[in-house]
Design a protein that fits this description.
binds 6-O-phosphono-beta-D-fructofuranose, elongated, 10 strands, four-stranded parallel sheet, alpha/beta, four-stranded mixed sheet
């Protein structure tokens, strides 16, 4: 996010556009929590996790009254257009601001879920993926030393991009996604094959949105059949959402930040800038969440073969 903020500010100034930062997203917009930004206000942030502008969930902004207040504050501050960085919730809000109040908006995709159509990758995804993979590498040392079965839960309530690539890159024996149907019988069968037959450690990556209900529930369902083996649950949680971004994420955020200003100058509104096949692509904002982005089922197949 910080790399994107930096790119938006620097690309704007390059084009003689002044920039106002909005603290805490829509929550801050309703309160007029604005800050003038110059080139130095984004110095030394490209390597930092989180966002210097902070973020917030805003129930108030979900209401028409909240959006009236937000639009008023934007107009009072002489802001001509908004650059919104976030996921589908952020974009749904931005679309409403445009439709209800005519405020020009451009979206930049930022979510570790990678679940927005119109871009191959979202900002934060690669960093979260590498964090989860490194965690799994470390967990494997214990799993291997003790011949244990580990259930590792990664984020992803509705989308399995992160779980799928974490599992493949971490060499998981089994990967359970929100998109796949995994009945408990087949999970037990698969685990028995790798664990009982070869008597070696096993690692299962479970997306929090998998139909089993997540790693804790799955452990509960497995414990009787796997009682003679030590089973452990590890929920990676919010460590996946922080930390210094990978080079790939920084470059992506830099490109998308600059592209958002170019899109504005080209007269676009209510669109998201993304990167598809290494080229900037403009997508109507509504299509980013209306058109479901599917996981790559070839990778699911691959994980079955390799696991
Ligand atoms: O929407 C992105 C996401 O990372 C989901 O994968 C996860 O379920 C959720 O955010 C966690 O959100 P919170 O920080 O509000 O618990």
């Amino acid at each position: 996010m910080n790399a994107a903020v930096r790119a938006v500010v620097r690309a704007s100034l390059y084009n003689d556009i002044s920039v106002t930062g909005i603290r805490q997203g829509y929550h801050g917009m309703i309160r007029g929590d604005f800050v003038d930004m110059d080139s130095s206000s984004v110095s030394n942030i490209i390597q930092r996790g989180g966002t210097i502008l902070k973020s917030a969930r805003s129930e108030e902004f979900r209401t028409p009254e909240g959006r009236i207040l937000a639009a008023q504050k934007v107009r009072e501050a002489d802001i001509d257009a908004l650059i919104a960085i976030g996921g589908d919730g952020t974009f749904q809000g931005a679309t409403k601001l445009y439709e209800e109040h005519g405020i020009l908006v451009i979206g930049i995709p930022g979510t570790i879920d990678n679940d927005l159509s119109g871009t191959d990758e979202t900002i934060g995804y690669d960093t979260a993926l590498n964090t989860a993979m490194e965690a799994i590498d470390k967990i494997r040392d214990t799993a291997d030393a003790h011949d244990r079965l580990f259930l590792v839960e990664v984020m992803g309530r509705d989308a399995g991009f992160l779980a799928l690539e974490t599992g493949i890159s971490g060499g998981a024996e089994l990967i359970l996604l929100p998109e796949t149907v995994n009945d408990i019988k087949s999970i037990k069968r698969d685990l028995s094959e790798v664990f009982f037959a070869h008597r070696r450690s096993s690692l299962v990556v479970v997306a929090e949105g998998n139909q089993t209900g997540g790693a804790v529930h799955l452990a509960e369902k497995l414990k009787d059949d796997f009682s003679q083996y030590e089973m452990r649950v590890c929920i990676l949680g919010h460590i996946q959402r922080g930390g210094s971004p990978t080079a790939r994420d920084r470059v992506l955020a830099s490109r998308l930040g600059a592209a958002s200003i170019q899109a504005l100058l080209d007269g676009h509104t209510s669109v998201m800038v993304g990167i598809v096949n290494n080229e900037i692509k403009i997508t109507p904002m509504k299509n980013t969440w209306n058109k479901k982005k599917n996981i790559n089922y070839d990778l699911v197949e691959l994980s079955n073969i390799l696991g």
